[in-house]
Structure formats: C-alpha cells, structure tokens
Design a protein that fits this description.
mainly alpha; seven-stranded mixed sheet; 59% helix; rod-shaped
Length: 629
C-alpha cells in the first residue's frame, strides 16, 4: 500500500479528484450494493461472530457503521488491504449510547484531592499563579475525569519515529486502522479505537474528531478481554512537526495509561528518557513499555536489549512491575509477525478489567504536583516564634520607650517625697539652697528630645527586623517573605503609638502613695524640731534672767532634738528604700506591659497569623503527600 500521511488525508479528503480516485466505494451504485449486503447480513444472526470470509466481515462491520468510513480518502485507504479488500471498521459513535456510570475515586484519593484543593485555596494570596498552575490543572482534570465513564480506560500508544507504534495499534485492533508506511512522519493526528460503546465523551475530551474514531475488528475473544478499552494512536513524539509534538504532550496529560513503544535502535534515546519517561516516573503503574521489532534481533540479542531497557528504566526511577510488585510492565513484541501480541493483549485485558487505571493516574498526578510544591511548603527545621524571641522583642520595645529609666525616675520621686516628709527643716533649707543657688556653668548639655526620639525609632525598627528574621527563619521563601511583610506592615506607626503609650502609662503625676508608717515618722520629726525650739527658748529665758538658771534640762532637750532629727531622717530613708524600689519596679512593669501589648497587637499577632496559615497549609500538604506515601 502506498504510504500516505494522515495530514495528506486531511488536506485532500474533500477534493473531488480524490473522490474519483477512490473508486466505486463512494459511488451511488456501490452504496446501493452495500445496503443490500447490510440487509442480508442483518438477517443472519451469525454474521458478526465466527465468520472467516473477509467479505462477510466487511458486510457485518458496515451493518454497524453510520457511514463514517465514506467521509473521504482517509476512510477508504485505511480500510484497504493489499489485495484490494477492506477490513471491518466501524465508527465509534452510536445513535443511542448506553448510560455510563461516572468514575468513583476511592476514599484515600478523594481525601488527597480535597487536601490539595484546600492547599491551593489557602495559598493563592501567598504564592504566584505559576507555582500553583500544575496543582490547579491536576484538580481540574481530576474533576473532569470523575464526571466521565468509569467503565472505560483510555490508553495511548506513544513512540518515536519508526518504532512501529501504528503497526502495534493495528495489531491490537485486529484491523488496519492507523496508516503505516516508510514515509515519516506517518501518523499526523491521533486516532481513537474503542472496544465498547459509551466512550464518546472520553474521546471528545481528548479533542479527537468523529472522523478519526474507529472500532476494532469485532471478535468475541477481543471484545471479552478488552471490553472498556479506548486505544489512542499518537503521532511521533520526536516528529519534526511541532504540531505533532503538541498533540502528544496534550493527550499524554489526559489519558489514563500509556504504552511506550520502543525499537532496538532508539530504546535508549535521550529525548525519550529525559523528556518523557523520567518526568513520568511516578506514573509507573499506568505505563507499559513495549520493545517492538524483536524479529529483527537474532538469537539472544532480544533478551540482552530487554535487560538493558529495564536497566535504563530503573535509572529513570521507574518501578518495574516484576515479581508481582506494582509498576511498569515491560514486554517484547513484534507487531509485524504477531509475536508477543497475545501477551500484551492479555496484560491489557487484565489492566483494563481492574478499572483502576484512572484513579491511579490521578493519584500519580497528585504525587507529581506535590513534589513540585515541595520547595514552597516543606522545611526540615522547626519554625515559628519561640517564647524567648517574644520576650526579647518586648524587652527591645521597653528599652525603646525607656521603661527602665521611667522606673528609676519613679523610684527617685518616691524617695524625694519621703525625704521631704521625714527630713529635718535645716536639711530641707540646705537642699533648697543647693538646687537654686548653684551656678549652671560647667554642666554637660543634656540630650535633646529630638535625639531621644530618633534613638527610640531606631531601636523599634531594629526590634521589628530581629523578630521578623527569627520568625521567618527556616520557612520556605514565599512564606518567609509573607512573614517579613506582615511585620513591616505592623511596624508602620508603631513608634508613634509607643510615644502616646509612654505619656499615658509612664511615671504617674502627683505625689507617690505613702506607706502607713509615714505619719509616725513625720510626727517624730516634728517632735524633734519642737524639742530643739523648746531647749533654745529655755536657754534664752535663762540668759535674759526670765527663768531660773538650769542648763541641764534645756541642753538635754536641744541635744535630743538635734541628734534625733537626723536619726529619724536616716531611719526613714532606710525604711523607704524597699517601697521606693517596688514603686519604681511597678512603674517599669506597667510601661513594659503596655509596650509589649502594643508590639504584640501591631507586629506579633500579624506575624503569628502568617505562621498559623503556614502551619495550616503545611498540614494540608502533609495530607496530600503523607496520604500518598
């Protein structure tokens, strides 16, 4: 038969000259004769099974046909045999296709898909659309496949130029459906062959038009073993035509399983292994690797090539289904002589009969999508904000607002109040004189308020950067960036908020509270002063001879007042240290607590929210990955 590509068929199918060259198959007289043959065949109940006459098979097949094989040159040439006859081929369309049950995933796969859907939803605002595109595609395709027939398994035959995949396709179908020949590439568009009705929606999903949908040779044995199979013959994956490679890549992402056809010359081709087999290592359970053209290998060469092929597949990470283990089935066949075709048909029949290929394909797609998402979700170290990091952040903010200085100022204020209340009058006068009588020259200039505010802002910014770096340490890059951005957003206006908080929660105005022993100390100090005055007046009265001479009593009173006043003051100062210290610490604690609360509300809470979101998506990612493993 002359080698003509499917592309040539498509381009010239509707030209009148081609119809003339096709012969009498498309003429009205021929169609009338065919109709008569169909009527006779329809009256014979045994016309479809067990007929050895090829012309009888032609009549039987055309009884089921809707005329699709009269749609042009491709239909007629594909059916022609070298002797001028035609194989029995029927269109896959049916006038009233039976209702097919939709695909039902098992509970484990449904759980993984639900987790992946939650994962994508939670990550849309944190990850770019390109990162989530593969996961979104897997979810869309899984949902689309679930709505279609669960009684059919779509298997694609893929291979390189000259590997003989179209011959294998025809051998499995028992009829020359796909064009074969020396001219390359031979197959220009995917062709579908369905062993049972109800697969139209599955084939439409692949984008294969009705004129390229066929039925195999109707035999009872093939229909019983391969019932539910939808076989797709793909163009060459290494074709020079870009359109052909696009067909292959698009359909390989949609089918339930793949039969890779290799030949003794190209089975180690780097393009096949690096572009297709290695990336599809997770799909080992839904792949067949067929070494075709073994009739060209003499002696034990076929076994040696087959062993080397298994070695290459193992290096690609593809699990081989040997010794009853799940994995890729590797078979030697010869589509030309028929050797090994029975074993392949039997393996395909068992594979299709299990009805598990669609679910395994979707599960493998989820594995691949999860592996691609590993860098943006997984981390091998503990992440989050430790209690130590939180405390250090609060301490830095407290230093920025001057909590320690405020506590010390409160302590000094309490002591000054105690000294005023319990000090001697003469000491108060001396301190007043020191405060107002000393010259101001020679003192070091104090820091201005602007300098203090600038220093405080720098401390706040440093505190925010430190806590953001610690919170994002160990996180994947997108989530670390999200944590840092949350910290930066929260730090805006934090310095101003801390300034207002310092004014409200700083050193309290007015006099500090007095302990219960203060009235006794004040009364004692007043008594010492009164004794000094009484002793002094008594001595003056004796000097002016107003009172009788008696130096002992007034001197004793003055000594008691002079010595007792400082003694009372010193005792009060010692007793005031504890309350003053507690008062200062309380003022410092109050300011630290207020600063920590402001920092927590503005920075730590947004950062913690991002960390919780990451933990949530990490949990969902664990369901996606862990459930599969």
């Amino acid at each position: 038969m002359t080698a003509v590509t499917d592309q040539d068929h498509t381009e010239h199918a509707d030209q009148p000259g081609d119809r003339d060259k096709a012969g009498s198959a498309g003429s009205p007289s021929a169609r009338t004769s065919q109709a008569a043959q169909q009527e006779r065949a329809g009256n014979d109940p045994h016309a479809r099974v067990g007929v050895n006459d090829p012309h009888a098979r032609v009549q039987d097949a055309r009884t089921d046909s809707t005329g699709a094989w009269d749609d042009g040159l491709i239909a007629r040439r594909v059916n022609e045999t070298p002797d001028g006859g035609q194989f029995a081929v029927a269109d896959s369309r049916s006038a009233a296709p039976p209702a097919m049950r939709p695909l039902v995933y098992d509970g484990l796969l449904r759980s993984r898909l639900e987790a992946l859907r939650e994962l994508v939803g939670l990550s849309r605002t944190r990850l770019d659309s390109r990162t989530l595109s593969e996961a979104g595609r897997v979810l869309d395709e899984a949902s689309a496949r679930r709505r279609l027939s669960g009684q059919h398994t779509v298997v694609a035959i893929a291979g390189a130029t000259g590997s003989g995949k179209s011959q294998l396709f025809n051998a499995l179908a028992g009829v020359a459906i796909s064009e074969t020949g020396v001219r390359r590439p031979t197959t220009a568009a995917p062709i579908a062959c369905s062993w049972s009705d109800g697969a139209a929606s599955l084939i439409e999903r692949l984008g294969i038009p009705p004129r390229l949908r066929r039925r195999p040779l109707p035999t009872a044995d093939a229909e019983s073993r391969l019932n539910g199979l939808v076989l797709i013959d793909l163009p060459d994956h290494d074709s020079a035509a870009v359109q052909h490679r696009e067909h292959v890549d698009r359909i390989l992402a949609l089918v339930d399983a793949v039969i890779w056809v290799v030949d003794p010359e190209k089975y180690a081709d780097a393009v096949l292994h690096e572009r297709y087999l290695r990336p599809m290592a997770a799909h080992a359970e839904v792949m067949f690797v067929v070494l075709n053209q073994i009739d060209r290998l003499p002696g034990e060469a076929a076994d040696q090539v087959l062993d080397d092929l298994r070695r290459l597949l193992d290096e690609d990470g593809i699990a081989l289904g040997e010794f009853g283990e799940p994995g890729t089935t590797v078979l030697p066949v010869s589509a030309l002589t028929g050797e090994g075709i029975g074993d392949l048909r039997e393996a395909l029949g068992q594979f299709v009969g299990e009805r598990g290929a669609p679910g395994r394909r979707v599960s493998a797609d989820v594995d691949v999508a999860a592996a691609r998402l590993w860098p943006v979700y997984a981390t091998r170290r503990r992440t989050g904000l430790s209690e130590q990091a939180r405390e250090e952040f609060a301490d830095r903010l407290a230093d920025a607002v001057g909590a320690t200085a405020a506590g010390e100022a409160a302590e000094r204020a309490w002591l000054r109040n105690a000294n005023r209340a319990c000090g001697t009058p003469w000491l108060r006068l001396w301190r007043w004189y020191q405060d107002h009588g000393e010259a101001t020259t020679g003192r070091l200039p104090s820091r201005t308020q602007a300098d203090e505010e600038a220093t405080a802002r720098q401390r706040v910014e440093q505190a925010v950067r430190t806590v953001a770096d610690r919170a994002s340490a160990g996180l994947p890059v997108p989530w670390a960036q999200a944590v840092r951005e949350a910290a930066v957003r929260g730090s805006q206006g934090l310095s101003e908020a801390l300034d207002e908080l310092t004014v409200r929660a700083g050193v309290p105005t007015g006099r500090p509270p007095r302990p219960g022993w203060w009235p006794v100390a004040v009364l004692s100090q007043a008594s010492m002063t009164i004794l000094q005055f009484l002793g002094g007046l008594w001595l003056l009265g004796q000097i002016f001879q107003i009172m009788s001479p008696n130096l002992g009593v007034p001197v004793l009173l003055m000594v008691i007042g002079i010595v007792g006043g400082p003694l009372v003051e010193w005792s009060c100062r010692m007793a005031a240290r504890g309350p003053a210290r507690r008062y200062g610490l309380e003022a410092e604690r109050r300011l630290r607590k207020a600063a920590a609360g402001c920092g927590r509300a503005r920075v730590l809470d947004p950062v913690a929210a991002e960390l919780l979101r990451y933990l949530e998506v990490r949990e969902q990612y664990g369901r996606v990955v862990g459930a599969g493993r």
